[in-house]
Amino acid sequence: MYPHLPDDISVEWLVREARAGNQQAADRLFYLFYRKICHFFLRDLHVSVEMAEELVQDTFEKAWRKLPTLQNCLVFESWLYTIARNVGFDHVRKLKRRKDPTPLDPEFDLADSSPPVESLVLAEMHIREMWNAMPPRQRECLYLFYMENLTMLEISARLQLGADTVKVYISKARMTLRDGLYASEEDVNDVKSKRCRA
């Protein structure tokens, strides 16, 4: 399919070449990761195949635009999955906005309720902030552990880190996300209390 590129080229080389404007290298990266990213959307968002394919296209379009900003070619895959997750979040938010509002009873007290969509969006925003603020190695270890289902030893081998280091990174990343979840709950409660006082 790619007569000018050998089959055993590394992802790192392809990323460097794609960043330099080599279209064949960009096409090969798309070919290598298309099915993985499509499976990610099918599994995590439970969307149709057609919608998953659209989301993959969106993911790669954003990736190509942001590729010049990727400093470390070794983390291309986890970086690509981060973009895919953000595309997924955007898709979920758009779906929630499109839903017709439920007819309300005239006597329904708005001050006593908080739309679940608001809570979800606030939680997503906090988690995404925590994720983006996390050191790249912690983020990568956590992703490989939970999303790729790799063992700590497998992560250690892939990233060329000590097993204890991987364990510490995953533990710190979990604590960071847990703090983000608690923070999001506090913000939701703050929004509710402000609404009640208004």
Characterise this structure.
This protein has 198 residues and is mainly α. The chain has two domains: 1-99, Rna Polymerase Sigma Factor, Chain: A (Orthogonal Bundle); 103-198, Arc Repressor Mutant, subunit A (Orthogonal Bundle). The chain has eight helices and no strands. Residues 107-115 and 194-198 have low confidence and may be disordered.
Descriptive keywords:
single chain, 198 residues, mainly alpha, Rna Polymerase Sigma Factor, Chain: A, Arc Repressor Mutant, subunit A, transcription, RNA_pol_sigma70_r2, RNA_pol_sigma-70-like
Task: Give a quick precis of the structure.
It is built from 8 helices and no strands. The chain has 198 residues and is mainly alpha-helical. Mean pLDDT is 78; it is low at 107-115 and 194-198.
CATH architecture of the largest domain: Orthogonal Bundle
Number of helices: 8
Helicity, as a percent range: over 70%
How big a fraction of the residues is strand? Answer: under 5%
What is the H/E string?
HHHHHHHH
Structural domain tally:
2
Radius of gyration: 20 Å
User: Would you identify the regions where 5 or more consecutive residues have pLDDT less than 50?
Assistant: 107-115, 194-198
Strand tally: 0
| Secondary-structure content class | mainly alpha
Mean pLDDT: 78
The CATH top-level class label of the largest domain: Mainly Alpha
- Can you say what the CATH homologous superfamily of the largest domain is? RNA polymerase sigma factor, region 2, helix turn helix motif
What order do the helices and strands come in, and which of them pair?
Blueprint: H1 11-19, H2 23-45, H3 49-66, H4 76-98, H5 116-133, H6 136-146, H7 152-159, H8 163-197
